[in-house]
Amino acid sequence: MNTFIVFLIVVYAVIGGVSSLYLFFSMPAVIIWKIYRKFKYNISLMD
Predict the structure, then answer these.
(1) Residue 37 contacts residue 43 (beta carbons within 8 Å)
(2) What is the widest separation between alpha-carbon atoms in the chain?
(3) For residues 26 and 7, what is the distance between their CA atoms, to the nearest angstrom?
């Protein structure tokens, strides 16, 4: 039973790490993309 619990903890840690890395890289990318569109196409930052 102890091995199964350790396995679950490892799986949940990997899932949490992957989702955190996704947010860490995607949020700045979206912000940079919106700023780029603002200056190149004069589109609002809220669109």
Answers:
(1) yes
(2) 59
(3) 29
